[in-house]
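Input record (one chain):
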Amino acid sequence: MGDLQVVGGIKKLNNNNYKTWETCMKSYLKGQDLWEVVGGSETTPPEEDVNGALRKWKIKAGKAMFALKTTIEEEMLEHIRDENTPKEAWDTFVTLFSKKNDTRLQLLENELLSISQRDMKIAQYFHKVKSICRDITELDPQSVIVEA
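The corresponding structure, as predicted from the sequence alone:
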């Protein structure tokens, strides 16, 4: 259990929890004053100045990369191992998880068809169904699932 909990109690990114991870990481990075480096609005200063802007940016970028790399499963690390900036790493995950993936879409549709409440509370069951529907809609906006 302790293995799953890392920075700020965020569950590590795997193939099945990108949207949850993304939401939690954005909040964490904003709270740590690191989002501007990851989101790209604070870019690398061209050179060092008297205020040490380049050094400060490198420190923030290093902290952001550490946060990203320690909140992902080992197999996810391969996707960002060679990225030089937190923005590059973040954008890699955005691309990886937001493109239409027919295999992933089929898996989600199968999961939705086969889900049963079993020992889940109704709220947990509803959340699971809603989460799968949201993931399907994000992968394929043409197949929007609306609430009745």
